[in-house]
Amino acid sequence: MKHQTIPRQRPNTLTSPVWAVNAGPAPRADVLSGTHETDVLVIGGGIAGMTTALHLAEKGVDVLLVEAQQFGDGATGQSGGIVAPDYIRHTPETIQPVLGEDAGDRLTAMIGGSGRHVFDLIHRHGIECDARQDGFYTPAHTDALAAQQQDYARQWSSRGHKVSFIDAAHARRFFGAERYCGALRFEEGGGLNPLAFVRGLARAAQRNGARLHAGSPVTRLERKDGYWLCRTPIGTVRAQRLVLAANGGNAALHPAMRRTSLPLHVFQFASMPLDAAQRQTILPRGGAFTDKVPYLFTARLDGLGHLISAFPMSFMVNGDAGYYREARRRLKQHFGVMPEPEIDYLWRGLAWVNTSFLPEIYDLGDQAIAIQACNGRGIATNTVIGSEVATMLATGDRDALSVRPRAPQPVRFHAGAALLPRLLMSLAYLTN
Ligand SMILES: Cc1cc2nc3c(=O)[nH]c(=O)nc-3n(C[C@H](O)[C@H](O)[C@H](O)COP(=O)(O)OP(=O)(O)OC[C@H]3O[C@@H](n4cnc5c(N)ncnc54)[C@H](O)[C@@H]3O)c2cc1C
């Protein structure tokens, strides 16, 4: 009798992120209940909060972290997991007139070293998170940009960073995509499973004595009698010092954080695992890339062979069927060996951007600081910032920070500006 192959059902509505498939179980963490005291309270269990808690605990500081949902359920677990030790808008030279020479060089050293920092941390704590330090690339779509990138490579490498330029022929061979004219290569970048990463950080923090609570949204935060008093549905914490690491959620926790960042909605997706021929052509040497067109394209492989990519939300693509169509269109547009791409996972993520496109640490006074370093590019930078914030809190030395803390600045005309990312992405879509 002839066997019939039953076609595999592909999803046609939004799914959970692909990362849960091989992230391992979530660490055990109780809901906060009853009354607690701590030296440092960290709010938010993404990469920023978790690395802060881990490094504080390692330094012997009493720390308690509360997370509204499960660790990594915010932007961290929605992300593409690309470890990108690069600026978003700047280069080592263009940052200098913005921040001043010393502060600019300090930030460049931090960002340029952030890939190494992430993979060293993973190694030190034995975190299993499909970590692959196989390079991060920023391909150029025009000859003019490729020419500029040769200079950017000089700017990075003259400061000791392992950054080089690859020409068009190499770019085509390395990516399996025809449209690029060259690329910057950041040797110390790569990719990881972000959910597994944050869960591993959480376990390491717990081993070192940090008290972590999931399912514990902060519903009220106030300054009382020289302490921070934090309430969750069934618990209370009294803390001497406070770190807000709730990303967009910081705005609801402290009045000075209102209107300081703008929402950027992104659809992230994973193709069905590539077949052998596709694997030989698409990213055959591994690595991850994010190009420089306004409607940006990004690609990497995970350990299961899924091709992970993304597209920003615009007004032009709507409805679940439309999102899947757009994901397939993007893959076909870039990879000739994927004439009929299939999508196994497609999920919505929310990144928060500020107007500087630089990582920010805000000094809120009263022994409180806030980390706002998402900008859709926080996997590497937030990992470093968490460790630097912990050092600063443990030692009192503000020089531990590569980002100079400042007072939060509300974005002007915030209500209108909040629509700007989606509007700009709609224009970018039309020129894509
Ligand atoms: C779709 C998408 C793709 C991305 N891809 C990449 C990428 O490939 N590479 C890269 O470098 N960056 C990427 N980013 C950005 C990166 O994910 C973020 O910069 C980074 O994860 C932010 O970490 P975080 O800890 O600051 O915030 P989050 O991970 O958002 O963590 C904040 C946490 O605070 C919690 N919280 C909020 N309010 C409260 C409250 N009241 N009480 C308690 N807890 C609260 C939230 O539940 C959340 O878990 C992407 C972002 C998105 C959305």
Ligands present: flavin-adenine dinucleotide
User: What percent of residues are in strands?
Assistant: 15-25%
Rounded to the nearest angstrom, the radius of gyration is 22 Å
Main beta-sheet strand count, sense and barrel state: 8 strands, mixed
The percent range for helix content is 25-40%
Distance between the termini: 50 Å
Name of the CATH architecture of the domain at 18-78 and 195-261 and 356-413: 3-Layer(bba) Sandwich
Structural class: alpha/beta
Number of strands: 18
CATH superfamily of the domain at 18-78 and 195-261 and 356-413: FAD/NAD(P)-binding domain
CATH topology value of the domain at 18-78 and 195-261 and 356-413: FAD/NAD(P)-binding domain
Morphology: globular
How many helix segments? Answer: 13
The chain-level mean pLDDT equals 95
CATH class of the domain at 18-78 and 195-261 and 356-413: Alpha Beta
Unreliable runs, pLDDT <50, ≥5 residues? none
Structural overview:
- With 432 residues, the chain is α/β, with parallel strands linked by helices.
- The chain has a domain of 186 residues: FAD/NAD(P)-binding domain.
- It is built from 13 helices and 18 strands.
- The strands form three sheets. Strands 1, 2, 8, 9, 10, 11, 17 and 18 form an eight-stranded mixed sheet that branches. It has an eight-stranded mixed sheet with strand order 5-6-4-13-14-15-12-16, sandwiched between helices.
- A hairpin with a 2-residue loop joins strand 10 and strand 11.
- The protein is globular, with a radius of gyration of 22 Å.
- The mean pLDDT is 95.
- The site of flavin-adenine dinucleotide has 41 residues, from helix 1, helix 2, strand 12, strand 16 and helix 11.
